[in-house]
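agent> Task received from the user: take the single chain below, predict its 3D structure, and emit structure tokens. No templates, no multimer pairing.
agent> Plan: (1) validate residues, (2) run structure prediction, (3) serialize to tokens, (4) report one or two observations.
agent> Step 1 OK, no nonstandard residues flagged.
tool_call: predict_structure(input=
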Amino acid sequence: MSSKKELREKVCKLNIDLQRYGLVAWTAGNVSERMSDGKRFMIKPSGVSYEDLKPSQMIICDLDGNVLEGELSPSSDTHTHAYIYRHMKDVGGVVHTHSNYAAAWSAVHSAIPCALTAMADEFGGEIPLGPFALIGNDAIGKGVVETLTGHRSSAVIMKNHGVFSIGKDATAAVKSAVMCEDVAKTTWIAKSLGTLQLIDQESVDKLFDRYQNIYGQRGK
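)
tool_result: status=success, residues=220
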């Protein structure tokens, strides 16, 4: 069980990792993790550049998105994270990015088809497309939850917006976001070369089951 200090360091580092992996620009994007009591979560502040981000600046909120600890304003996506935590009890980490290739798929209103074994392994098939929703209330969170509930994928691309990913903790959710952008890029390039050749469902199932049995990455 991580102490509050250790969790601040972890969440801060993982937010900075979004920039390191090329998933965010300027101050966009965010990572959060549910705290050990299950009733709170930690998220980055709004409007602070990644270069200036410090563990002490991480914000603690309740599951309604109310700030419990922190001097700065929480991320503008805080209510989305809170909604996901309230309605997906096994989720311990949430990530949001506007990564280029995944966001490009969202701009043409297309799920990312499963044409790569890496997708079958990590996501169990296609990465689904979620509904369009405006920021500022629970609408985005509701769309994420409705799309991912009962779905193998740990990531969703929201129409005209970007990626939300979930995991058993923040590390798993960041991994999902990284892998989502990686396969989004490869499939986009492949689509420019010709028709995507999708993997048959039986093979997808075998690849996903094998990967989960070995690595247990699902985290939902």
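agent> Step 4: summary for the user.
The longest strand covers residues 162-167.
agent> Done.
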